[in-house]
Amino acid sequence: MPDLLTANNLLPLIAGTIFDRADFFHHFERTGSTNVTAMHAGAEGAPEGSLFIAEEQLAGKGRGGHAWHSEPDSGIYISALLRPRMPAADTLWFSLIAGLAAHHAISQVIGLSCDLRWPNDIMLGEKKLGGILTELSSEGASVRYLVVGVGLNVNQASFPAELAGLATSLCMETDREWPRAELLAALLKSFHAEYAALRKDLQGAARSIIARFEQHSTYARGARVHVPEEGGYSGITQGLNASGFLQVRAESGLKTVLSGGVRKI
Length: 265
Description:
The chain has helices at 7-10, 34-43, 92-109, 170-174, 180-200, 202-215, and strands spanning 25-28, 51-54, 75-82, 115-117, 121-124, 127-139, 142-153, 221-227, 233-240, 246-250, 253-257, 263-264. By secondary structure, it is of the alpha+beta class.
């Protein structure tokens, strides 16, 4: 039976989560971008917990306007629509909990420990295994809705030449294919738990998120990195601050990375 990420294959595995509704489930053989589709649905009033899943993306989006390579029937390409009652300034937490959910799922199902690169990359060694893209619509200082997109390389056997040195997959790392539905279900159940904790006690959840993100990231503390923002600078990472932003000790002092990623040097 094909390992498709359909409602029939996935919904029994995510019972009890906010995603456990057949009418919330949108599965596409192919689409341009699940994030674009989800953002449009959010504007039209789609409910919280709506899922948008593609077997193939024709115009997959990464952070900073980059494209995301989406080989058919091989990866996980999914976007979740949420309507949290919180300030737009707090939405960085959603990228971080998506990373933690992916780390938990990969550890639970595959037995590998991935590396989280702030704010939104899922790494194995120095190669990218997955990425997270959070987009939102706000009204004043409050969130109207937001979309958390996750792309994860699962059963790809190879990548185009321009990505071969930069990307990897779970199949390439373990020499076997993996059940995508089981992996995605573990990710969604973990994300559901993280989101529930965030809604219940933002400050308490934030402390836990910071501690666990730093634990699962070789980039967060003590890494020498280059930061492209502010014209570019280098320094040593000093962990996340109370708002979840990465801090870097540069020659000019302690800096807070507000946008863009970091690269080890």
